[in-house]
Design goal:
With about 450 residues, the protein is an alpha/beta fold. It has helices at about 5-15, 20-40, 50-65, 80-90, 120-135, 230-240, 270-280, 295-305, 315-320, 325-330, 345-350, 355-370, 405-415, 420-440, 445-450, 450-455, and strands at about 45-50, 70-75, 95, 105-110, 135-140, 165, 185-190, 200, 220-225, 245-250, 265, 285-290, 310-315, 335-340, 370-375, 380, 390.
């Protein structure tokens, strides 16, 4: 949940009869139990800010103190909220000024949590980092100090935490870069909040195996339109085949040899010939972009594909060719459309500067009527109606040339089953990331493709 959504959810729980003090007690004691399970009696310094995040810190400190842990609280100011004041009144240990505090083996950050919108001042932050640097273990409560809640921004140059404990619900910045890389091990504490959000962590999909009446067309005919660099299109075709498509074709200029005997390559001499082939009603999904090129022929190929009636995946050069006209070109389509830009391609699609990945993806999806999968270490998937998912499953070895071509093929294979574009993008992203994990370190795109059946098997 965003900071605003979290505030509303907490208020709804308070309106139901749960006091703020009781909510703080649930949060603090839940976090303290997690800290105890991880580090037992490690001497601990808890930094408590003046707001309710600081109040959580006093609850944590008292719970650990009662377990026999050596605990000290450091605070720059007295609590300013009633609930935090109440929590401090129950604290039986030692409290010292932030400037006078000395490092302890374990550092628990309750200075600021959800809702921070500006950088912490140099005086406070200087002491924060001094104490942070002197610790062996570092735990952030809700969000690390210096992290903005909703967009993954670092408002201060923070270090790497070992654990971050989300209270009541995860926030976008728990999964958005660059904040995500600072979180360490991420865990959540349930404090009884029941709320919904349009932003979800991408789940493992549940995929049905083919039934007894299925055939190659009912499982989906995926067509890849090749351009100047045919190797990328071939990777896309191979990926679509190994992630469940019933039939895969490549439409290409004369001379392309099939990468595999079971992948059909059909020669397309000119644009009218392509338009004729794309009119085949049996086509379940089209992919264009991998290896397309950016010349006049690429533009003509893209125009022909955009005019086709089948669901469509737009990737790589197709996005660069479309550039700032993307929304106008795509919104006229009636079939499902998915665009899969990386950060550089995304910038070419937007008519204005957008600094936040989630916000920008939602804006582009709304303008174009297209599902957007914005690739990266924090891949975001957004539907035109604003639903969004983020991939919590990562594989840094996917930062390899050709893996994006593979992703386009995987998504197309899911889109060809007849599901929505948003769902196809979500399922394709999960399968692709999981295949990367299974492939191990330093793999090639072909090795990644070989792991797709095992990734798919986990979802059946």
């Amino acid at each position: 949940m965003t900071a605003a959504e979290m505030k509303l959810a907490e208020q709804a729980l308070i309106d139901s009869g749960v006091s703020v003090e009781a909510l703080m007690r649930r949060a603090g004691q839940g976090a303290a139990q997690m800290i105890w399970r991880i580090s037992a009696d490690l001497p601990t310094l808890v930094l408590c800010g003046p707001g309710n995040n600081g109040g959580d810190g006093y609850v944590i400190a008292q719970w650990l103190l009662e377990k026999g842990v050596e605990v000290c609280v450091a605070a720059p100011l007295e609590p300013t909220t009633d609930a935090a004041q109440h929590a401090k009144s129950l604290w039986c240990g030692n409290t010292i000024a932030l400037a006078d505090a000395q490092p302890a083996p374990q550092f628990v950050d309750c200075l600021f949590g959800t809702g921070l919108t500006r950088a912490v001042g140099d005086d406070w932050f200087g002491h924060f980092m001094r104490l942070f640097a002197g610790a062996k273990r570092r735990v952030a409560i809700d969000l690390p100090t210096g992290v903005e809640s909703d967009h993954g921004e670092l408002l201060n140059p923070i270090g790497q935490f070992d654990t971050s404990i989300a209270l009541g619900g995860f926030k976008p910045s728990h999964f958005l870069e660059p904040a995500r890389s600072k979180m360490g091990n991420l865990v959540g504490i349930d404090i009884g909040i029941e709320a919904d959000s349009d932003f979800r962590i991408l789940p493992k999909p549940l995929i049905s195996a083919p039934g007894s009446q299925d055939h190659k067309y009912s499982r989906g005919l995926v067509t890849v339109v090749a351009g100047a660099m045919t190797g990328a299109a071939q990777l896309t075709a191979m990926a679509a085949q190994k992630s469940g498509a019933g039939y895969v074709k490549v439409f290409a200029s004369p001379g392309l040899v099939s990468p595999h005997p079971s992948i059909v390559v059909e020669t397309v001499a000119d644009i009218p010939a392509l338009e004729q082939k794309l009119s085949d009603h049996r086509i379940s999904a089209i992919v264009i972009g991998p290896g397309l090129g950016r010349d006049d022929r690429a533009k003509d190929l893209l125009s022909a594909v955009l005019a086709a009636d089948a669901p469509l995946v737009l990737d790589a050069d197709a996005l660069t060719v479309a550039a700032a006209q993307f929304s106008d070109l795509v919104k006229a389509r009636t079939a499902e459309t998915i665009a899969t830009p990386h950060a550089g391609e995304f910038a070419t699609l937007m008519s204005e500067d957008v600094h936040h990945r989630l916000e920008g993806s939602r804006k582009l999806a709304g303008q174009s009527g297209c599902n957007i999968l914005l690739k990266g270490a924090d891949t975001v998937i957004v539907s035109p109606d604003g639903k969004a998912s983020i991939s919590a499953q990562t594989c840094r070895w996917l930062s390899t040339a050709g893996t994006g071509d593979v992703l386009a093929g995987v998504i197309a294979s899911r889109l060809a089953t007849g599901i929505s574009g948003y769902k196809a993008a979500c399922e394709g992203q999960w399968l692709h990331s999981r295949a990367g994990q299974l492939a191990g370190p330093a793999f090639t795109p072909e090795m990644l493709i070989d792991q797709l059946p095992a990734s798919l098997q986990e979802c059946l």
